[in-house]
Amino acid sequence: xxxxxxxxxxALSPKLSALPSGLVKQAKxxxxxxxxxxxxxxxxxxxxxxxxxxxxxxxESACTVLGFPFALCATExxxxxxxxxxxxxxxxxxxxxxTHTSACIVPACCRxxxxxxxxxxxxxxxSWWASRWQPV
Length: 136
Prior knowledge:
Elements: H1 3-12, H2 21-41, H3 45-56, E1 63-64, E2 71-72, H4 74-87, H5 101-109, H6 118-126
Antiparallel strand pairs: 1-2
């Protein structure tokens, strides 16, 4: 099996118990950090403008928009949450690539339970912070 196939197989069948505990701890911390900076960034002008423009389009209300009293469709909620996550530029960066991966990945993963499939439900049930923060 090639390295690419091994990575794809690993990505398609995640089991928290199979991952190194340090990696899981770091990932959970980065997720919580991203939610925090998204909430902090939700009051910034750039996030408010993005939310106002998207909300005015009248998209379906299914997914959480952190810091706002309304919900949007998955792609639009991910966009506004991504703007909020990066608004203050406190989102994490990787030292090797200098990228802001959490601001892109976490908002896209925060979908409404109504749009979750079985794999989403299993992941969130296993996540220790699922009981502390639930999408709309």
